[in-house]
């Protein structure tokens, strides 16, 4: 529950505005991650990991990784070429959620088994505000999940920082692991993403060097079953002005696709969005 600072009414964590006086209470996913028991458990996990690292060399690696997460980590969404063209070229286009898009009849439903699975997982994690959540992955090199699509949209920190949270694993996997109740300490606000990243990755970080930080944080070889990443949950839509860079390959075989990409790149340039060749 969350108390309204204006009228003191006790609201459910799933609401964005006080149902009594309308005061903005914050984004529900962020308020959930801010719960004292959630943060305290995360901090305890972080402290436990830190205590096990005794070597100065290892401590320095962890600090370098933590600093990189604080300053360089971005939320990245992967989309295909056709949707990239629509999103970047079309005026006033918003990146929507599965629930909003299907309800608005702008996309088809997934196959029955996947639709049920998606709605079950999202309902378990977010309840009645599930269709407000957009999914991304945490990345240090502006690459996303190749298993989803070829083009990676890296979002500006300022566009999501106040409304994003992070989850230690793919939501489907973590719900399968903890179907009764996900333990506290496995999610964080955007501002505390470095704590969760250290907890998840410290064991690998101490064994490798700085050049491997990005691939330790996000493992994606094109097979969703083996993807391993920190999932980002963003409340509400975003538009092309939210995008910092687009990463992908210019090597295409179809003439029409080449024309599409050329048009996209022209629009990226006019918008001040970086193109990163992969």
Which key terms come to mind for this protein?
single chain; two-stranded antiparallel ribbon; 278 residues; eight-stranded mixed β-sheet; 42% helix
Q: What does the largest sheet look like?
A: 8 strands, mixed
Cα Rg:
20 Å
Give the overall shape, derived from the CA principal axes: globular
Strand order of the largest sheet: 7-6-8-4-3-5-9-10
Strand content: 15-25%
Low-confidence stretches: none
Number of strands: 10
The H-and-E topology, N to C, reads as EEHHHEHHHEEHEHEHHEEHE
| Structure class | alpha+beta
Helix content: 40-55%
Number of domains: 1
| Mean pLDDT reading | 93
Distance between the termini: 45 Å
Q: How many helical stretches?
A: 11
Structure description:
This protein has 278 residues and is of the alpha+beta class. The protein contains eleven helices and ten strands. It has an eight-stranded mixed beta sheet. α3 (56-72) packs across α9 (193-205). The longest helix has 17 residues, at 36-52. It starts with a strand and ends with a strand.
Write a brief caption for the model.
The chain is α+β, with helices and mostly antiparallel strands. It is built from eleven helices and ten strands. The chain has one domain.
Record the SSE blueprint.
Blueprint: E1 2-3, E2 10-11, H1 28-33, H2 36-52, H3 56-72, E3 74-79, H4 81-89, H5 98-103, H6 112-126, E4 133-139, E5 151-155, H7 157-160, E6 164-167, H8 171-177, E7 187-189, H9 193-205, H10 213-217, E8 231-235, E9 243-248, H11 255-271, E10 274-277
Parallel strand pairs: 9-10
Antiparallel strand pairs: 1-2, 3-4, 3-5, 4-8, 5-9, 6-7, 6-8
